[in-house]
Amino acid sequence: MRHPEQQYLDLMGDILENGDRRVDRTGVGTLSLFGAMARFSLRDGQAPILTTKRVYWKTAVKEMLWFLTGGTNIRPLLQENVRIWTDWPLDKYRKATGERISQEDFEARIVADEAFAAKWGELGPVYGKQWRRWLGPDGKEHDQIAAVVEALRHNPASRRILFHAWNVAEIGGMALPPCHMVYQFHVAQGRLSCLMYQRSVDLLLGAPFNFVGAAALTLMLAQQAELEAGELVWMGGDVHLYLNHLDQAREMLTRAPRPWPTMRLTRKAASIDDYRIEDFEVDGYAPHAAIHADVAV
To answer: What confidence tens digit (pLDDT) does each residue in 67-86 have?
Structure first.
């Protein structure tokens, strides 16, 4: 049986061979393909945690839990030792002040100084704000996640069970416009499946985290609606490899996928807002070594 991770590796190989070389927003440059799809079963606890390089799955789940809080400041992430969002506020601080502060010192100051964090750790109205506090033209806030839970419980056949983050009116204030834009849910035979669309996909660094985050979200929503997990359907728009990630991608392609681990929730949380990282248990994860690469800002 073909390993499900091979879908990811085939896409990576296709980009290396056929990708369009482009100058991108960051100035780093990419090889890019437009339009991709992968399907990953979540049945029996299967989890799309890549094995051809180590994926720090706890970091990805912590990020998803932070999204669900509606938060937009990196301080709670840094308090959980999640550093994947630091680059954008750090870049803004350096440009505004001229201070060549190190990332470590900047992060330490964010954690230690609440007022400093309030000024320099803010990302603008990014994912969590749109998911939990989308502002309508009448000034009313809309909790899209709560609406999804309600629909899954009471109208699971609906074709409108979705949320998204592409709020045109607020994109200009975001440190980074949403990449994983739309999540749609489908219930069949007591199983919940998720389709997640990304307009822009950093295939080496971003996609592995996005797979884990979407799977974790599906597990939480399924539990809240008393359903089993079904499938994660992933769709990518501009799927790319940064030009400074090509050697790392080639290294991944030399490695054979190993058996995927399982992920489960260790308790039934009272609500979608009550989950903690300790509620997630991953068994059987034995990946190849980590592959390091720089984030393009």
So the answer is: 999 999 999 999 999 999 99
